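Lecture notes, part 5. Sequence design as translation. It can be helpful to think of inverse folding as translation between two languages: the language of shapes and the language of residues. The source text, in structure tokens, appears below.
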């Protein structure tokens, strides 16, 4: 992977709606952690947020791989 491709991938993460949405969702989970009760639901919220972020990142990576294959 050459440096220009790496920068392009980072740009895709920064401008991806799904990644931005997942990050803002993390802010909500963080606020709930600070102010809400600490019980089993909080753990599920963090797990859910982590899975959402992983899916968003995986989607961006898969789309960039698909675009690379189309460009060949």
């Amino acid at each position: 992977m050459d440096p220009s491709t790496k920068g392009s991938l980072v740009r895709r993460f920064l401008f991806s709606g799904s990644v931005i949405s997942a990050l803002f969702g993390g802010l909500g989970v963080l606020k709930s952690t600070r102010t809400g009760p600490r019980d089993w639901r909080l753990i599920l919220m963090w797990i859910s947020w982590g899975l959402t972020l992983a899916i968003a990142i995986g989607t961006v990576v898969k789309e960039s791989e698909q675009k690379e294959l189309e460009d060949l």
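The translated text above is only one of many valid answers, since several sequences can fold into similar shapes. Residues 16-71 form one domain.
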